[in-house]
Automatic annotation (TrEMBL), chains A, B, C, D:
It comes from the Bacteria. Pfam families: Cyclase (PF04199). One of its GO terms (molecular function) is arylformamidase activity. GO terms for biological process: L-tryptophan catabolic process to kynurenine. This is Cyclase family protein. It comes from Mumia zhuanghuii. SUPFAM superfamilies: Putative cyclase.
Length: 280, 280, 280, 280
């Protein structure tokens, strides 16, 4: 039998039993949803539907077949995703990270599940707009003003979610704008990424397809924030999040929960992150 | 700015900041892992590795291609997974649940993320064995003795995880035993499932491939617990969990977290559930 | 030992031994190639490359992982592909064609391999243009003038390949034009399809994405030629062919060879059809 | 208009018009068919069935989703499939063959379609048995006696199909025997492969899973015939063929037709090869 004391283990459980509100920060995966053309699209079919094969007792099971990349829908980048000059995070040579053709080192299976303080950085609210302009680079001043306005200083180990409002294009089904190949996409650049690193964040997310500020027409030619975050500092990146409900209800602090699939040797994982707060 | 009071939203966050231990209840997904042959096997490859295409600035991205069923690895069954006599949960006709060839009703995207009290029912510990015998049906008495021994009465809305010890075969790589086609697999039957329903569980999981008690040689010919849980009572089932660490440390009560991928119209989702307790 | 006489079996072989020219009518399958967005895109990755796992004797094998629809790249439509008012070819009810969730009746596995006379109908050459205009409907008069000009009357059992020149957009990498969502695509309509049926063709192909004449902006809203050919007359359709080499060399008559993958219960198959003629 | 003379191009066509018999040498692809566990299994589902989405005019289209390896079902090995000591055929370094993460050199897209003389080597008929024993290595003497008995000397450029009778296990659904992991599989070894090379074959096929003689329990630990054929001599290998009909009708010489999918950069392709002879 357990010999752990109630006080050691039950504080969290008591808080949950008192009532929590769970805000879904993930996107529904549908065939045809907006995603980067660089990755295998999400596809789904039912090999078996109810009625295709009915057992003698009248029971029937339906099942699925899925194919996809790991950087589609709401997802997290593993540290094996991006390299610079042949090196991954920790100065690891890219060849040394591979075993049997998969990234045994720094692969998606090495991302520990997260139950941490999360902070929403609602930049459009700070700037007094519904959403940022296409291609707008979120500055360090924007980030500083936002934490000050919200009174939510970032603490070491936090997960910082940078809202641009661009997720509205996902909601409205405007794929071209959400992907932003021609229009561009707002986001942080190298400077903003470094500021987040300086605050000690464990991970950072955004409501956009690539987290980065993408200038109009430039595509994903260079990804400076990925370099600063993933390669230089080992900070995970979460993309294509739904941050609209948090913003609408001004939920700026919460318990952030993210549990990636332990895909051995992969460079990322689809996820459905949660923001959880006490109350109903 | 937020007008929610700190006391309303911060109790949970304070509990997390005081320190939590996160126990991983999911299995690593690897090519060739044990799974049911009725579902598309998990496969993974890297279309692009570092070095395949290096940008002019020295940056390089690697990515993935995945194909799989949704009932492989650790996963949750949606209520659309099993029907009886042409009906899904809530007496819904199977044809009416389909829209455009997917289960819009009761599909995986309708499973709300779970942040709830979880209870481990460590049946082998109650019976004084390392793991249950192949084909052993966990009785109602076994379940009652277990909650009594653990002093962990199940409450309405809980998630009950029924340990058989069979997950040791997953750990050891004994695929034939884990799948149990010839040997059988221990688990609850219709009676045990009904008892769990009577306690008011929201979901229930196990460390086996199909949750059910599978007699030797019988395969998945009938699935009575699935009928009782999914079809008759709308109780979700989680399979192929890793419950060994919880048992080793006698963690019988915890915050259970499960956030399925919102796979539109699917019959299940791979998941990585967590047990979270206060303390390090 | 064989008792078949040489004269019975060797005429064809002798013709081949005398020398043949094989013209490839298929497209190379590449990730990102133009295709209909209605079907799962072609994706390919190497789970294992040379060097990932080397045997003690110094040998190493590389392998592949593919996901795709069957109506991508050069492909043939099975008779199970299209229905009208709930009926497939032969007045077969669509529900009756299914067994175990696949089209056992009229599926891709029922398409007999073809070794038949093939005729190229080079319509742009008849009209004196390099390629037909977007959205141009090839008329019965166009078809009649073409067979007359070429002196290649269609005979019962032939395979008729209708060239529009639109495949030049596949060659040039102009995906938007090849798919033609906005611009439209040239092709035969219901009248042209009926004329081909009246000539007794066994199958018919084109160098376009959907065989049909697609008006600008209309997409695949209706597919009258598919109805006439597949549903009403059991004539197979081959799409996204490469007909440029045949046209350039004015090869209007040839042995047409097509050997679809016997995909059990599927609605089509990727193929690499050949035109074969005597000579080098 | 064409200026090629009829005699130049029509000999072959005339032979086809006189009537041909087409023998299917491929296997039907079904979910669950026997295949090597080293490759992604063949899976197929219908994302859309008839009735899921009916157009206003009463038309409806069904379609498919496929995932698979390229070395499943009847398939051909590209020269990029196997290397020895870091080299592919032609002493090409394995790293140099890759471009953008695919085998641009020696990939499946480089296999020219085949319309050639084919010869069946019916070894069980020579040895007076229905099929060879598990693990039996077909000797050079067996091959020599077979061509002599059949009076079908192999000529340079031919495709030689070596029958063992093992395909009977595919027909009967005996997956364990066909795969032969425990039992072994009959086939040629290094000596037989070298003899075929010495005859000048362009390609060679068999009715087994791996072409090779596999000793009982040894699995695919070493593949000497692959080395001799693919790496040292650039001779293609075709596996999992259906050679029973050819043997039953003693068709030992024919036109062999094989048209692999032009899968860019892949290591093989599923195929449906044909044997074609004059006559009905």
């Amino acid at each position: 039998m357990t010999t752990l004391s109630t006080t050691t283990t039950h504080t969290l459980l008591d808080a949950v039993r008192a009532g929590v509100r769970v805000v879904d920060l993930g996107r529904t995966l549908t065939v045809g949803m907006p995603q980067s053309p660089n990755h295998p699209a999400y596809w789904h079919a039912l090999p078996r539907r109810h009625g295709d094969m009915v057992r003698v007792d009248g029971g029937s099971a339906a099942n699925d077949m899925i194919s996809m990349g790991t950087h589609v829908g709401t997802h997290i980048d593993a540290l094996s995703h991006v390299s610079q000059d042949g090196k991954l995070y920790g100065d690891l040579d890219v060849a040394d990270a591979l075993t049997g053709g998969r990234y045994e080192e720094l692969g998606a299976h090495t991302i520990a599940p997260m139950v941490r303080r999360g902070v929403l950085l609602d930049v459009p609210a700070t700037l007094g707009v519904d959403r940022l302009d296409a291609g707008y680079e979120i500055s360090v001043v924007d980030l500083e003003r936002t934490v000050e306005r919200q009174a939510t200083a970032i603490e070491p180990g936090d997960v910082a979610l940078v809202r641009s409002g661009w997720g509205q294009h996902f909601d409205s089904g405007d794929k071209a704008s959400f992907v932003g190949h021609d229009s561009g996409v707002p986001g942080v650049g190298a400077a903003g990424a470094q500021w987040l690193v300086d605050q000690g964040v464990h991970a950072t997310g955004a409501d956009t397809i690539a987290y980065e500020c993408l200038p109009p027409g430039a595509g994903h030619a260079t990804l400076p924030a990925h370099r600063v975050l993933l390669v230089e500092n080992g900070v995970y990146i979460i993309e294509t999040m739904n941050l609209e409900e948090l913003a609408a209800d001004a939920l700026h602090e919460f318990v952030f929960v993210l549990s990636p699939l332990a895909l051995y040797g992969a460079t990322g994982s689809p996820v459905r992150p949660l923001a959880v707060v006490s109350g109903e």
